[in-house]
Each structure stands twice: as structure tokens, then as C-alpha cells.
Design a protein that fits this description.
8-stranded parallel beta sheet; 7-stranded mixed beta sheet; single chain; 387 residues; binds zinc ion; TIM Barrel; globular; alpha/beta
Length: 387
């Protein structure tokens, strides 16, 4: 079964310019040929020719911070306690709506444990081989210092030996990566020292697994980076020193700015005091300013930035990657850099050659939008069809 897409433009995040008048020939979900319309081989009989004139092709997006089994929305935390049956239904819906919105990869960074195993690992195994849901790489559940999170959510560790044991347990249960929670017990300290994080990353490295760290405070981010994590999630408070060290070590940042943009919308769509109260409004404005500034600091230092929505573990929904990309542009990334963050940079973070890239011989993982996302990220909301 072959399809020829004619007369499209390509915005692949590797160049600041659209490439126009392009043809793609797709056979059995692989890109058999791509190039200029005038050089395209004449399609043999039986090939469906689609006039894609006026569209821009974008590689399937990589959502580098996802929570596949959770729905998001203004009560996102409460939803963690929903039944296993409901969370599996939510995962299925999330997968379908994400693909239709152009997201092809989920990097899941935490799911509730059910029946002794993180639920996203079960979903990952059941999604293998499907094209109507994203490819899924998943951490297990959250690993936190005892007492920092509500005890039903994470695997808790009270010292570094228990931390290492928790990391190995997650890997034994099938985690593709390991997620540490590096907030708390207060905003001035990290629950683990850099040495303790280093023991965890070394133990994981022996099993060829990387560790990533949730860190919304500066002390947590510093301990994570110095402890050798592959990536800082959120990184809501960064300074020039830690950003320089991230750039030098090659530590990725996944900022998840859309969460704060979505909280702003809750000021009008909900009556929840945390969002509409005077204190909540002021605190959000402050946190948002610092987080956006932290992205600017990281970008200036040359840190590799991958885009992630935090859907489910935050308030965004699974089909809102465009919102995060808009936020990265608002924070100061150029639209081509933001599109790179949402495509091949996220693919590199996953260590997956084809993720976020289109190439002859590669999978037909792309979608078609109206408008030029290299100038205006809002074009990414205008999806016409998925390849
Ligand atoms: Zn998250």
C-alpha cells in the first residue's frame, strides 16, 4: 500500500527555512522517497496520490515529559487515585488524541504503581506494534525521599542504600529510565546530596539505564546535575552556574512551561482558591517569571532543551504539545529552536534514531499542518492529517 503526498512544504526543525514543493512517497508506513516535486518518480498504478498543497510537514513530535496514564486538568493530582481500569482507559484515550495532534512519542516520567508495577510499563508493553498510539518509553514510578510526597504515590527511600535499591527495583520491573524526585523537604534543600544521586546514577548506568530528576528548586537541580543525571525535569529555578555545568556535561532540560500557562487559564475556568485567590495569583506570576527566565539562562548557556507537556502529571492534556512549543517561544527560543526541542532533540534524549526526524527509509512518522511553524508555532494547532 503506497501513498504519494505531493506539493507540500517541510518544516523539520533542522533548518530555519521551509523547504517547498516537496513530494513524499510512503509505502507500508515507511518513507520510500522524498524530494522535489519535479524529481519525483511517476507514481505507479495503484498508488494513492494526495494533493497536500498548502500544508507543511512536521516530524512526529516527541513529548519528552508525559504521564501516559493520567488525564490532567485542574484536578490532576486527585486523578492519581482513580481506579486501575479508569487509568488504563485514560491511557488509551491519551494515546489516540496525542497521535491525532501530531505527537508520535511519549517519554513517560512517572505513573502510579498498580499490582506491584508502574502502570505505564504495562501500557508500554500492550502498545507495542500499534501505530494509532505513540511509541512509549517509560520510567517506572516516582522515587522520593520518605515523607516528601503522599506515601501512596512514590517508592520511598530513607537513605542512599534504599535509594539505590529502589532504582534497581524499577529497572528489574522493566523501566526504560528511572525518575528521581528531587524536591523537598523544603525549597532551600535537596532531599539527596550530589553524592547520593551519584550512587543512584552509577547503579543505573551499570544496567545501561539513565536517571532523570524532577527538580523545581535550585538545590535539587544542582544535586541532580552534579550527581550525573541525564536530564533535569522542570528546572523551574536555574542560575548561570548550574546552566553552565549542564551545558558542559550534556545534561538535558525539559522545562514544562505549559503547566504554568494552563494554571493561568484556571484563573477564569475554575473557582479553585489555589488558582483564583489573591495569593495563588501572585505566587503563580512569580513562579512563571522565574521559570521562563530559567529557560532563557539555560538556552544562553547552550543547554540542550527538549519539549515536554507534563500532561497528566500536570494540568495539560495529552494533545497539547503545541501549547508547550508556544511557551518555549514566549520564553525566548526561536520558533525553529522550539520545533527542534519538540522533535529531534527529544529524540536524542530518548536515544532513538528516528524519533522526531523524517528521512528516506525511516518510518512515516509525520503530520501535516497549515501555516509555517518555523515562524509561528500556533500553526501546530492546525493539524490536517497524520502520516
Ligand atoms: Zn511530571
Amino acid at each position: 500500500m503506497s501513498t504519494a503526498y505531493r506539493h507540500l512544504a517541510i518544516a523539520d526543525g533542522t533548518s530555519p527555512d521551509l523547504v517547498q514543493d516537496q513530494t513524499l512517497i510512503v509505502t507500508d508506513d515507511r518513507i520510500e522517497w522524498m524530494g522535489h516535486d519535479d524529481e519525483a518518480p511517476s507514481p505507479p498504478a495503484g498508488v494513492r496520490v494526495i494533493d497536500a498543497g498548502g500544508t507543511a510537514l512536521v516530524p512526529g513530535l516527541v513529548d519528552a515529559h508525559s504521564h501516559t496514564t493520567l488525564p490532567g486538568g485542574s484536578h490532576w493530582i486527585a486523578r492519581i487515585d482513580d481506579s486501575t481500569e479508569e487509568l488504563l482507559r485514560v491511557a488509551e484515550e491519551n494515546g489516540q488524541i496525542a497521535v491525532q495532534a501530531g505527537t508520535r512519542w511519549f517519554r513517560d516520567v512517572g505513573s502510579p504503581r498498580r499490582d506491584g508495577r508502574a502502570l505505564a510499563l504495562t501500557v508500554r508493553d500492550s502498545w507495542r506494534g500499534r501505530r494509532d498510539v505513540p511509541y512509549l518509553r517509560a520510567a517506572g514510578t516516582w522515587i522520593a525521599k520518605a515523607g516528601v510526597l503522599p506515601p501512596t504515590i512514590p517508592i520511598e527511600a530513607s537513605d542512599a542504600d534504599e535509594l539505590v535499591a529502589a532504582v534497581l527495583q524499577q529497572i528489574d520491573e522493566g523501566a526504560d529510565l528511572v525518575k528521581l524526585y528531587l524536591d523537598g523537604p523544603d525549597r532551600d534543600s535537596s532531599p539527596w546530596t550530589a553524592d547520593e544521586v551519584g550512587r543512584a546514577t552509577a547503579a543505573a548506568a551499570k544496567r545501561a539505564v539513565t536517571v532523570t530528576a524532577h527538580a523545581t528548586t535550585l538545590p535539587g537541580a544542582v544535586a541532580a546535575v552534579q550527581g550525573g543525571v541525564a536530564c533535569v525535569e522542570h528546572g523551574s529555578v536555574l542560575d548561570a552556574d548550574v546552566a553552565a555545568e549542564m551545558a558542559e556535561r550534556g545534561t538535558y532540560l525539559v522545562p514544562t512551561l505549559g503547566v504554568m500557562a494552563s494554571w493561568e487559564t484556571f484563573q477564569t475556568t475554575t473557582t479553585i482558591d489555589r488558582f483564583v485567590g489573591v495569593e495563588g495569583v501572585a505566587e503563580l506570576a512569580n513562579r512563571k517569571e522565574v521559570a521562563f527566565e530559567s529557560v532563557r539562562i539555560a538556552e544562553k548557556a547552550g543547554v540542550k532543551i527538549a519539549a515536554g507537556t507534563d500532561f497528566g502529571g500536570g494540568s495539560l492534556r495529552a494533545n497539547q504539545m503545541a501549547w508547550e512549543i508556544e511557551c518555549l517561544v514566549a520564553a525566548g527560543l526561536t520558533p525553529p529552536a522550539a520545533l527542534a526541542s519538540a522533535t529531534w532533540v527529544g529524540g536524542d534524549l530518548l536515544g532513538e534514531d528516528h524519533a522526531g526526524r523524517v528521512a528516506e527509509g525511516g518510518p512515516a512518522d509525520f503530520f501535516l499542518v497549515h501555516g509555517n511553524p518555523l515562524e509561528d508555532p500556533s500553526a501546530l494547532w492546525r493539524v490536517w492529517r497524520v502520516g
